[in-house]
Amino acid sequence: MESKSIEWLYALEHNLTPQRLIENLLKTSNQSDAYNRLEDGVDMFRPYFVERLCVSQKQAKTVLVQVVVASDKIYDFLIETARYSKESETTEKLRYRYLKILSQLESLLEDCGKIESDIFYQIPLTSHSTANVRLALRQKINILQHRMMAADIDAELSSLLVKGLLILVAKKGISRAEVSYALTLLDVLKDTKSLETLLVEDLLFQLDFNTPTFFNYWVNNCNRLLDNEPNLYRQKEILIGMEDRFNGLIPKNKMKCMVDDASVSTQLKEFLKEKKRHINQRIKLRRAELQDIKLAESGGRILFNLSVAQFGLLIRLFIENGLLMKEDIRGTFAHFAAHFRTPKTTAMSAESLQKKSTDVEFSVARKMKGLLINMVNWINENYNTPRNNATEP
Question: 298 pLDDT exceeds 70?
């Protein structure tokens, strides 16, 4: 039963090549046997589809796709007949036969769709039905494009909408669900009396036009607003305002433009969440920086007029020459980091200061050597002779 329920499709592909069909038509004008075999195959397929559906939707979808494949193969045969003489009676019969079979297969798919609409909407359209559907959709898109130009809709928004729809319509193996989505979107925009940029943005969000270009459109708009506002708290207000706008837009249907991708709502809300997290981090760092500056200005840390690397090397000189004890080197550097600052660093890390005391660049060592020489020279200039009150040895 199973093999017969599907084998007639393979037989169609084999027996209906233009050459074989022409030979068959020339042999006999009575094609009732061929039509009866086709009808028998169609009658067997419906209960077989229901049987597969009871097992799993995946199996049911697979057998339904087989009908689409067979239909596409026969449609290729139909296109091939365009090379033949149009005035030939045999060619006309050939084309009529192909069109009749394609119509019967289309009816079979629709009957199965009445049994299980979800699978029916997921499978690709047949090549036979796609041409007319694409033509109708492109005409609607063209009308929309001219209307948006007349309404002075944002050029970027208008362009991404038209291109996104054209890509969807031209998609190989476009499904009925995708056609239904495109028609719904076009009809909603058509029924909107006055098109404006903000309104089109809202409608595309509500209709889940989740293309990468529409997501990037929102991201770029958001970044422009943030770039024009230096205040971090105002930036958070901008993001909260966008969130409020999105939360107030109720979805108009359950369909998405790109079925396998996340909804535009999910993508944008995740983007705004990440943006707010980064801003909060920057606010936290700014607060810490202000606290360090305030502490430094209030005298909490003593200014040492050296770079951090030079200061670390100076502490190391104290330790290596016995001026500071080696028992608790880590604690020593922690103390200096907590109570001293440099002109460019108000808060030093004890670990970084200790590391820089050993990882010394030549330029830092040369600078420190110069400072030490200057110190010795100053002592020589000021204390090179005994004081008047000093006694001779």
Answer: no
